[in-house]
């Protein structure tokens, strides 16, 4: 009998209790989401909300499913619901900012990326995406600061190098600006699929610009 009681205790520790059952649905939903099955993932997130209507993780998950399916307005609605139930949930701010960026509403995207950065000052994508918004709004210095910071956080991600190179060319009006070319070379270094002859041409161009 003692063995049965012990087994029961162990099972209870590793099973979903009523308080965490919703999050178990969220874990399963995330697994389907990562496999690209957004319909099944969304069903499971809604099941989590049936158990706990204030599950901010589920609202965020549903928003992601809608976003990946191209339903941006619906995604915004569910990200906003997530924020209503947890105003410190960084992911929902960042994700809603992505929606506004997709809609090219950069003024609306900025506050969400700002809030996301405030909640996590080292979140690469929030800083990078804020820089994108600044660039489209013509705030080049702020954009450059964000791209610089993003590169400092993750120097192995080529996104910020690409955006900083484009920004430099736009701001200078010089498509052969050597600082921009340095960033393009870094992009090529991080991308093994680029032919060596193209890398060499860019390297030759930057040597010419510096002389």
UniProtKB/TrEMBL annotation:
<dbReference type="InterPro" id="IPR050498">
    <property type="entry name" value="Ycf3"/>
</dbReference>
<protein>
    <submittedName>
        <fullName>Tetratricopeptide repeat protein</fullName>
    </submittedName>
</protein>
<dbReference type="InterPro" id="IPR019734">
    <property type="entry name" value="TPR_rpt"/>
</dbReference>
<feature type="repeat" description="TPR">
    <location>
        <begin position="124"/>
        <end position="157"/>
    </location>
</feature>
<dbReference type="Pfam" id="PF00515">
    <property type="entry name" value="TPR_1"/>
</dbReference>
<dbReference type="GO" id="GO:0046813">
    <property type="term" value="P:receptor-mediated virion attachment to host cell"/>
</dbReference>
<dbReference type="GO" id="GO:0009279">
    <property type="term" value="C:cell outer membrane"/>
</dbReference>
<keyword id="KW-0802">TPR repeat</keyword>
<keyword id="KW-0677">Repeat</keyword>
<feature type="repeat" description="TPR">
    <location>
        <begin position="56"/>
        <end position="89"/>
    </location>
</feature>
<dbReference type="Pfam" id="PF13432">
    <property type="entry name" value="TPR_16"/>
</dbReference>
<dbReference type="InterPro" id="IPR011990">
    <property type="entry name" value="TPR-like_helical_dom_sf"/>
</dbReference>
<feature type="repeat" description="TPR">
    <location>
        <begin position="90"/>
        <end position="123"/>
    </location>
</feature>
């Amino acid at each position: 009998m003692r063995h049965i009681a012990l087994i029961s205790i162990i099972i209870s520790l590793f099973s979903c209790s009523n308080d965490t059952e919703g999050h178990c649905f969220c874990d399963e939903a995330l697994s389907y989401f990562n496999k690209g099955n957004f319909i099944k993932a969304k069903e499971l997130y809604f099941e989590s909300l049936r158990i706990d209507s204030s599950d901010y993780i589920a609202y965020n998950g549903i928003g992601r499913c809608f976003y990946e399916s191209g339903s941006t307005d619906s995604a915004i609605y569910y990200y906003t619901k997530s924020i209503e139930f947890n105003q410190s949930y960084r992911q929902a701010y960042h994700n809603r900012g992505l929606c506004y960026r997709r809609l090219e509403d950069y003024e609306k995207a900025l506050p969400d990326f700002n809030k996301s950065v405030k909640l996590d000052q080292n979140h690469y994508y929030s800083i990078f995406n804020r820089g994108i918004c600044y660039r489209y709004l013509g705030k080049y210095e702020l954009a450059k600061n964000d791209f610089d910071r993003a590169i400092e956080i993750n120097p192995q991600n080529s996104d910020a190098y690409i955006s900083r190179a484009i920004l430099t060319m736009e701001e200078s009006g010089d498509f052969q600006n050597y600082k921009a070319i340095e960033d393009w070379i870094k992009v090529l270094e991080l991308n093994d699929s680029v032919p060596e002859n193209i890398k060499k041409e860019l390297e030759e161009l930057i040597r010419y610009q510096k002389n």
